[in-house]
Amino acid sequence: MALASPFYIPSPPVNGFHIGPAYIHFYGLMYVIGITVAIIITQRRWKAVGGDPALVGDVAIWAVPAGIIGGRIYFDLTTPKYIPHHWYGVLAVWDGGLGIWGGIALAAVVGVWRVRRSGASAYLFMDAVAPALLVAQAIGRVGNYFNQELFGGPTTLPWALQISPQFRPAGYAQYTTFHPTFLYEFIFDLAWAALLVWLGHHRRIKPPGLFALYVAGYSAFRIFEESLRVDPSEHFLGLRLNMYVASVLTVVGIVWFIRSQRRGRPAEELLARRPGSSDGETSAAASGDKGGGATSGDAAEPSDSTWPQAGSTDSAPGGSAPAESSETAR
Fold first, then answer.
1. pLDDT (mean) for 303-327
2. What does the pLDDT read at residue 298?
């Protein structure tokens, strides 16, 4: 006998639609929309601090592919048993998915490189992009609904999510409704994004303080989310692997925020563009061959002491990238 809530969110009847011979998955469409919205938000925020909006497009061109590569590497390394069993399985992002931690980390490294090459402050840019990343992640979670994934354990709460039998994990076939953890993250992402925007307008947060709060806040929420999820995952000492990753990044984000506020420079002392440049020139400088040395933006950055200690570059995500496919948020 199936155990279910009398009130629930129904399963989606389809997960995509046809345009001619092409089948468009709602999941992929949501991430395309999420990336687009994130770019628009970041352009507005970057322009508000005196930056060239064209730089955001340049960063996205490089950071989005980097995020896909980083996300797939993380997925392959942390969940090898779920790699498809064919020669191109390690590359099949459409079958197995991406890991958000690896995706954002590599996109951050590439994004910082592009911003610094343009002569602008990477710290200012990271604060500009932080709320946009959360909005993109929220929109992407809508795709999880259509894929019937990223749900938690059984529940009879009024907002429980109905899961079709073929998508229920082993040992849960007798249950019909589950925690919609993707919905919880959707709500949290938008709320945390709004808080970061409010803090940026009403408090003197030294860059990259908002981005550090993004790392800490999202990671802390993932500890809660991982405690609910029942989908397949690698475990270590009885806990999901992502529980450890989220715990470490929560601490990294908090320490990073404290150090940046104690030792960092105010936003008004940092450069949003190369001195003397006009709109469009900053982006052109980033894509031109103007040497590989330090730029004026590098010189304006706060000292490296505001960053987390060794090994934290990959742990401090930044940049916009499509999140996970069918095994989402590994």
1. 39
2. 43
Q: For residue 327, is pLDDT > 80?
A: no
Q: What is the amino acid identity at position 307?
A: W
Give the type of residue at 29.
Answer: L
Residue tagged 């992402």 (tokens): 189
Position 269 pLDDT exceeds 70: yes
Which two tokens mark 320? 């916009």
Instruction: Using the predicted structure, report yes or no on whether residue 191 has a pLDDT greater than 50.
Output: yes
